[in-house]
Amino acid sequence: MQNSMPPLSALRAFEATARLGSVTAAADELNVTHGAVSRQLKSLDEHFGVALFAKAGRGLVLTHHGEQLQSGVGEAFSRLRDSCAALKHEVEEASFTLACPGSLLARWLIPRLDRLHRDLPELKLQVVVSDTEQPGKPTDASATLAFTEPPWPADIEVIPLMSEQICAVASPALAAHIDPTRPESLFANTLLVTASRPQAWPQWASAKGLEQGALKDALQQGQSFAHLYYLIEAAVAGLGIAIAPTLLVEDELSSGRLIAPWGSIETSARLCLLLPKHANLRRSEPLAEWFKQALKG
């Protein structure tokens, strides 16, 4: 039979009115006007060609036909409510998995992890190490914290947290022999580079007006590390001049274990919270806001 199923919104208004015995109460529960519910009930009477409610004093009672419809509709909406409540409970009880590249995890997130757990206990946060320093690849994690450059991949949601700054750093002993007024003086030293961020040195050199050919020659004589964490430790050990996100060496700069003779430059990259496309932001937005506040500090 064609058109035997009326609109779901009309059935919802009918179920609420039948359960509560009042159009006003149904309107309050559904957060619509009294008139909107009345129109939905009228459309059902017209759809079935019979009256589903009869007046009883100031309220309404179901007619025989209304009781017949309510027997199925009431059970269906009850099961819908139970299913929605169960799913919401499962989502709220599930842990929120945050993936993070190892270097960012070790050098910035872990020292703040205890405070994050205390501030957002309802998140039930679990942190895992990303498989790669390069974000944007499919993952089972609820979100990924990482530096990444636009354009953003089309299949992820991106919440930018802060602009990336990078700096060339050296141990105090090595920095003592560097002229801070002449960035090109770094070419007399071993340059340290990480395979995960080959663009960092060219970006820094371009901002400082250095010749890319000379940089390329210096990098060929330099030393490469698989991860930023090792790169920074090599710089602390005095093995050469490293290029790194300022955020990840701020503790070493503050303590004097590393020196940034030429300061920092801003790149086009951003530290971002990356989410699956169409992700529910209810749980991730408080985390993003927490990161923004922590980064200001």
UniProtKB/TrEMBL annotation:
InterPro entries: LysR-type_TF_proteobact-type (IPR058163), LysR_HTH_N (IPR000847), LysR_subst-bd (IPR005119), WH-like_DNA-bd_sf (IPR036388), WH_DNA-bd_sf (IPR036390)
Protease among keywords: no
DNA-binding keyword on record: yes
Gene3D superfamilies: Periplasmic binding protein-like II, Winged helix-like DNA-binding domain superfamily/Winged helix DNA-binding domain
Keywords from the named record: DNA-binding, Transcription, Transcription regulation
PROSITE patterns: HTH_LYSR (PS50931)
Record-annotated HTH lysR-type domain positions: 6-63
Family: Belongs to the LysR transcriptional regulatory family.
PANTHER family documented for this protein: HTH-TYPE TRANSCRIPTIONAL REGULATOR (PTHR30537), HTH-TYPE TRANSCRIPTIONAL REGULATOR TRPI (PTHR30537:SF74)
Name the record gives this protein: LysR family transcriptional regulator
Organism: Halomonas qaidamensis
